[in-house]
């Protein structure tokens, strides 16, 4: 048993403000419920995610005092009495989805919409608004429930620490980007457009290459992020520039549409061209229907919310967007939305990392920081830094 430890975490204080504060040391419980099926982790790495940034910008109903963080890799320091297949000392990746392993959806592999871990709605995550009240993992220590089901154990501890900058991305953005590509139908010879060159977009671009895409095109408004996409062989389109997107695709591909489209932007999207400072939440979805060939598929790992208090109009505040859905219907498009079921992909993607088939840390430009540097990391990320900030709470990476 571990007790009497101190613990610190990154705490949301209100729009635009996070700070590192003392928080409770985790126990194998949630409120009055015992979690004998859980473990306590010493956090090795925990990453800042774009969806955390939505909350920190005040674009959700997140309450002040929320401990942030759902991208967690750690070492087990305590096991509950019902944990059978893991032990103290194991180094593990934590899917950001919390899943019971017992409900209908979990048994169907739909771990992003587990029915038993969030009283408000299907699906839960650590440190996230409306996602079940679970304490976040941007901290020194965290509790993970249903450990035998949820956790991916790395086969060799030393090898895991050696490749931790890559393996830390298995908790969310690499499976999420990969899922976006899979649901967009990316395969050998595909032409793919990735909307957004943030960390998820870059992970999707690297995933498209892993899946055998012939040409991966990344669109964004941030010159540094586009440069990062080019660094591992992507074509790019600067969306601040005027011009018809079909013409821009034709200049790259010789064709005016792509086979597959992946939306890695989500609800804080902005208009293109001279209006790029103006928010237009449906613009990526409408572009997807215009740019994808008839019969093509559209993967939407980018986050869309049911409530957006900071939206530009009353409809968007309720998550209602003005989409030209008839165009998608006419072109027989398929759309795939929702949280990535991380567990579906994390083991094969771990193998791809361990056998050097993907250099994901280089692709997303991982920058390791201390826990105390987290508020600055949030500020830099919000400013458009072409980096993926990875917090190292115990100095185990550096």
In short:
This protein has 398 residues and is an alpha/beta fold. The chain has helices at residues 50-56, 104-107, 147-150, 157-162, 164-167, 173-183, 199-210, 223-230, 245-253, 283-291, 314-317, 325-330, 346-354, 360-364, 374-382; strands spanning 8-14, 17-22, 29-30, 33-34, 39-47, 72-79, 91-94, 141-144, 152-153, 191-195, 215-220, 235-238, 258-263, 292-299, 334-336, 366-369, 388-391. Its cofactor is Zn(2+).
Description:
With 398 residues, the protein is of the alpha/beta class. It has helices at 50-56, 104-107, 147-150, 157-162, 164-167, 173-183, 199-210, 223-230, 245-253, 283-291, 314-317, 325-330, 346-354, 360-364, 374-382; strands at 8-14, 17-22, 29-30, 33-34, 39-47, 72-79, 91-94, 141-144, 152-153, 191-195, 215-220, 235-238, 258-263, 292-299, 334-336, 366-369, 388-391. Strands 5, 6, 7, 8, 9, 16 and 17 form a seven-stranded mixed sheet that branches. Strands 12-11-10-13-14-15 form a six-stranded parallel sheet, sandwiched between helices. The two termini are 28 Å apart. The model has no long low-confidence stretch (mean pLDDT 94). It comes from Pokkaliibacter plantistimulans. It holds the Pfam family ADH_zinc_N. Keywords: Metal-binding, NAD, Oxidoreductase, Zinc.
């Amino acid at each position: 048993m571990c007790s009497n430890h101190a613990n610190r975490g990154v705490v949301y204080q209100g729009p635009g403000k996070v700070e590192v504060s003392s928080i409770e040391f985790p126990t194998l419980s949630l409120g009055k419920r015992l979690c004998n099926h859980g473990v306590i982790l010493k956090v090795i790495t925990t990453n800042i995610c774009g969806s955390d940034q939505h909350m920190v910008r005040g674009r959700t109903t997140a309450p002040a005092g929320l401990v942030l963080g759902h991208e967690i890799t750690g070492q087990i320091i305590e096991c509950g009495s019902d944990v059978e297949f893991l032990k103290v000392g194991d180094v593990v990746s934590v899917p950001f989805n919390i899943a019971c392993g017992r409900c209908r959806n979990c048994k169907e592999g739909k771990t992003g919409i587990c029915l038993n871990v969030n009283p408000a709605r299907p699906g839960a995550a650590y440190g996230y608004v409306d996602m079940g009240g679970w304490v976040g993992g941007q901290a020194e220590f965290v509790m993970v429930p249903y450990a035998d089901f949820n956790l991916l154990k790395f086969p060799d501890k030393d090898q895991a620490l050696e490749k931790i900058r890559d393996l830390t991305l298995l908790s969310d953005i690499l499976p999420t980007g990969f899922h976006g590509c899979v649901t967009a139908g990316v395969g050998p010879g595909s032409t793919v457009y990735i909307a957004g060159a943030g960390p998820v977009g870059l992970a999707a671009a690297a995933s498209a290459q892993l899946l055998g895409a012939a040409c991966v095109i990344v669109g964004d408004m941030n010159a540094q992020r586009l440069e990062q996409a080019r660094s591992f062989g992507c074509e790019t389109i600067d969306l601040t520039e005027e011009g018809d997107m079909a013409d821009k695709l034709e200049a790259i591909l010789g064709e005016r549409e792509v086979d597959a489209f992946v939306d890695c932007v989500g609800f804080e999207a902005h208009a293109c061209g001279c209006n790029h400072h103006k928010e237009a939440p449906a613009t990526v979805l409408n572009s997807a229907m215009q740019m994808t060939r008839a019969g093509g598929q559209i993967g939407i790992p980018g986050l869309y919310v049911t409530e957006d208090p900071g939206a530009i109009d009353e409809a968007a505040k309720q998550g209602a967007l003005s989409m030209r859905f008839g165009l998608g219907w006419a072109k027989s498009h398929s759309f795939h939305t929702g949280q990535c079921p991380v567990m579906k992909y994390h083991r094969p993607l771990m193998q791809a990392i361990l056998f050097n088939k993907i250099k994901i840390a280089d692709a997303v430009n991982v920058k390791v920081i201390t826990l105390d540097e987290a508020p600055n990391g949030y500020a830099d990320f919000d400013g458009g830094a072409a980096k993926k900030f990875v917090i190292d709470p115990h100095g185990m990476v550096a």
